[in-house]
Amino acid sequence: MIDPEPLPEDEAPAPHAHQPDGTDSSAEWDAQIADENMIPDEDPPAK
Questions:
Q1: Which of 14, 30, 36, 42 is most deeply packed, by most CB within 10 A?
Q2: Rg for the chain (alpha carbons), in Å?
Q3: Does the pTM exceed 0.70?
Q4: Integer angstrom CA distances of residue 25 from 28, 36, 40
């Protein structure tokens, strides 16, 4: 199997977040509205 080429940075999926109970918090993450329970799915890219 051939590995797919990585997406360009502007097409890469944005990081998302969730709550401890598994509830999706991606919309709040995208709107930069956070609370103390939000868990990012991965570290945001360094700029």
A1: 30
A2: 13
A3: no
A4: 5, 12, 9
Residue whose C-alpha is closest to residue 38's, from 21, 10, 3: 21
Tokens 């991606």 correspond to what residue? 26
What does 1-47 look like in DSSP terms, one character per residue?
Answer: -PPPPPPPGGGSPPP-EE-TT--B-HHHHHTT---TT-EESSPPPP-
Residue 34: band (very low, low, confident or very high) from pLDDT cuts 50, 70, 90: confident
What CA–CA distance (Å, rounded) separates 29 from 21? Answer: 16
Tokens 């940075």, located at residue:
9
